[in-house]
Design goal:
Blueprint: H1 14-24, H2 29-36, H3 40-54, H4 59-68, H5 100-108, H6 111-119, E1 146-150, E2 163-171, E3 175-183, E4 189-196, E5 203-204, E6 206-207, E7 214-221, E8 224-231, E9 234-243, E10 249-256, E11 264-271
Antiparallel strand pairs: 1-2, 1-11, 2-3, 3-4, 4-6, 5-7, 7-8, 8-9, 9-10, 10-11
Amino acid sequence: MATLTPISPDALTDKELEILRLLAGGHTVKSIAARLDRSEASINERLREARRKTGVGSSRELARQLDAQKIWDKNIDLSPGEPSAEEPSVPRRKGFESTKGKIAMLTLLPAAALALALTAGNVTPETGGTAQAATAAPLRGTPLTGRWSLDVAKIPEEERPRAVTIAFSPAPEGRWHTVVTIESPDGALQKAESTAALDGVAVPVTGSMAQIDSVSLRQPEAGTLVMTLGKDGKRVSTRVYTVAGDGRTMTETIVWAVEGMPDMVTTTFNRIG
């Protein structure tokens, strides 16, 4: 495990801190650019400058260290502000882009799962909600059960972790046990663990991932799981996991909790157990 070196927020600008805060919360460069109305190139430039100032070689590691120091809890102005002349803005999209990639992605998602991705996860331990009986098939023996490893080669180098694994397994009373482990480029490990019913009711997440503290689950089909992650009573993201017909790969579709119409980010996991 890497040793944290205290980093002074005074070395960074408010905009650099805002970007790093979003990165620590699980966002990607693409989703940060959409949220702040900036280009991806400008976000990457800010991250490069922050790494140069602090001497930390990885943007995600820098964000993790700042998050561990509770930098965001201090009175720092992290408002996005207005676009500057050097940093052109990116207009927010008012609807889905009519690209072949988006259409293909939506076709891959079951209709029920997509609907849940847009509406699930508003229930948190703080707000409560109406529990509904889980209607999914028994977990044991479903395609989701097992261990999965992220295909990191498909992740942009700037955002690429060393490894990410997800393990799904059945738990007593028809619940679902999930363990997620992230290994950063420097070898530091983060882990999140939860046991939840498939009724959409949020339960606590334990472990060392400071960016999330709750999760809720739905399973519209045997090979599909809808997972919503939250922090401090607010939705962070909704993720739809869909296992391929051969059972060897699993697609993760992420919908971030951002203003306007969010992008859908997809990643691929390979079965390892």
